[in-house]
């Protein structure tokens, strides 16, 4: 690596990764060459290898960056809901999910690239343990709900996870597949309807 100030190195990495991200999302991983990335980012091909030994290392670096961003965003979503059984808070979280999906469209596209070209090698770490995360975060409320309703009822952490994923899936279809209100409802009506389903399952 050339003797550059750390801020310059970071700026160059960010520039390279932004260019690579756009190319990967449009052309796929295997359809994009390091030469193309170097040309678009205005970094010499020889120099780009000072930052990333391989194209796979570059792809992994982008994924790792997004892991940090998405973990931070997920925590914001969870922190926004103090009571997981409160309709207003759940609906507000759903709107935040919509905004997150729309702001980070490239993240979801990159995930599809990973699924189709790598068998989800890079992104598989994003999903295991999701229900346990919710159970830890809302442990007291979920435990109280189980005690109140009895052990034979649905696990509130699983119900919350299903609702969480449904909101993400709905807005991903809208954002990536141009769903154009594919359920025949406005976003607000979808949020109201899904929230109502969720609260009924939770016995609210």
Written description of the protein model:
This protein is an all-alpha fold. The protein has two domains: 1-53, Homeodomain-like (Arc Repressor Mutant, subunit A, Orthogonal Bundle); 63-201. It is 73% helix and 0% strand. It has ten helices and no strands. The chain has helices at residues 6-27, 34-41, 45-51, 55-80, 87-103, 105-118, 130-137, 139-149, 156-176, 187-201. Helix 1 packs across helix 2 (34-41) and helix 4 (55-80) runs antiparallel to helix 5 (87-103). The longest helix has 26 residues, at 55-80. The protein is elongated and about 65 Å long. The N and C termini lie far apart (58 Å). The model has no long low-confidence stretch (mean pLDDT 91).
Put simply, the count of helices is 10
Largest sheet: none
Tally of individual domains: 2
User: Portion of residues in helices?
Assistant: over 70%
- Arithmetic mean of pLDDT: 91
N/C terminus separation: 58 Å
User: How do the SSEs run, as a string of H and E?
Assistant: HHHHHHHHHH
Proportion of beta-strand residues: under 5%
State the secondary-structure class: mainly alpha
* Shape type: elongated
| Poorly predicted tracts of residues | none
The total count of strands amounts to: 0
Radius of gyration: 21 Å
């Amino acid at each position: 690596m050339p003797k550059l100030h750390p801020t310059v190195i970071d700026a160059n990495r960010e520039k390279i990764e932004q260019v690579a991200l756009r190319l990967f999302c449009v052309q796929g991983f295997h359809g994009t060459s390091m030469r193309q990335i170097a040309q678009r980012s205005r970094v010499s091909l020889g120099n780009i290898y000072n930052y990333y030994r391989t194209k796979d290392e570059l792809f992994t670096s982008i994924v790792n960056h997004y892991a940090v961003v998405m973990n931070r965003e997920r925590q914001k979503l969870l922190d926004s809901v103090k009571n997981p059984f409160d309709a207003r808070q759940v609906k507000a979280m759903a709107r935040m999910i919509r905004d997150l999906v729309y702001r980070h469209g490239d993240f979801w596209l990159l995930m599809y690239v990973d699924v189709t070209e790598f068998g989800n090698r890079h992104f598989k770490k994003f999903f295991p343990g999701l229900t346990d995360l919710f159970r830890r975060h809302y442990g007291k409320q979920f435990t109280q709900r189980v005690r109140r309703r009895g052990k034979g009822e649905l696990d509130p952490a699983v119900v919350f996870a299903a609702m969480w994923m449904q909101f993400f899936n709905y807005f991903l279809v809208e954002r990536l597949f141009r769903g154009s209100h594919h359920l025949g409802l406005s976003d607000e009506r979808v949020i109201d309807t899904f929230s109502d389903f969720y609260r009924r399952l939770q016995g609210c």
